[in-house]
Amino acid sequence: MGTNRLDQYMRLDDGSHSWVKVPMQELADLGLANKISRCSYVKGDFAYLEEDCDLAVWIVACLKAYDHHPIIVTKHLDDPFSKDNPRNFKPFPQTEKYSSECWKEAHAFYGTWVKGKAK
To answer: What SS3 class is residue 10?
Structure first.
């Protein structure tokens, strides 16, 4: 695994949606480069993973690789039209390999992992 894992990750919330900022290299290191949808965004060396779908795929990859949930802190965006709002960034580059099955598998695994930790 690469060394691009952060101690904590920033969740940007604009009041109606949110995204978590993750280094692009970390996505590559976790084998997720072709498992992220166009609902997520990119700016510079970071992906902004959409909360309803892609975020779960990344969290599950972290659980499998590190056996713990990443620490996520929230920053509220006061202005939804701000240049810092991921909605104003480029969509994540789509590959033909992306499938909504990634999301379904991630949610199924996460439920099992949480139940196992509760024991």
So the answer is: strand
Dist. CA 14–CA 36, nearest whole Å: 21
Q: State the chain's mean pLDDT as an integer.
A: 82
pTM recorded for the entire structure: 0.81
Domain regions of the chain by residue span: 9-118
Q: How far is 50 from 15, CA to CA, in rounded Å?
A: 14
Virtual CA dihedral for 75, 80, 85, 86, nearest 10 degrees? 110
Positive or negative, the CA dihedral 105, 66, 1, 4 is positive
- Neighbour-count burial for 71-83, b at 16+ CB within 10 Å, e otherwise: eeeeeebeeeeee
Please write the tens of the pLDDT for every residue from 26-52. 999 999 988 888 889 999 999 999 998
